[in-house]
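Listing S7. Sequence submitted for prediction.
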Amino acid sequence: MKIKPLNDRVLVEPMPAEEKTASGIIIPDTAKEKPMRGKVVAAGTGTKDEEMKVKEGDVVLYGKYAGTEISVENKDFLIMKQSDIFAIIE
C-alpha cells in the first residue's frame, strides 16, 4: 500500500526510543519516553500559502503529542501537519 499525504501533511516513521542513557544506564520499557524524532516517509505538495520545507528522507523533531498514529502493513506511522515539525536534523 502506498500513502501520499495531501496538502501540508507529512507521513513520519518514528525512530525507536533510546535504550541507554549517555552514561550507559539501560532504560527499562516502562520508563521510556515516546520518541520525538522520526524519518519523513512521504510529504504532500504544500498549499498556496505554505510551501513544503521537508522532503522524503529528512530526519525531523516533532512535538510529543503531534500527529495521528496510523498502522499500515504492521508498521506504525504518524501523519501530521508540517507546522507540527520543530526542526530538520542534518
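Caption to Listing S7: primary sequence and predicted C-alpha cells for the chain studied. The first strand starts at residue 9 and ends at 14. The domain at 1-15+35-90 is CATH 2.30.33.40 (10 Kd Chaperonin, Protein Cpn10; Chain O).
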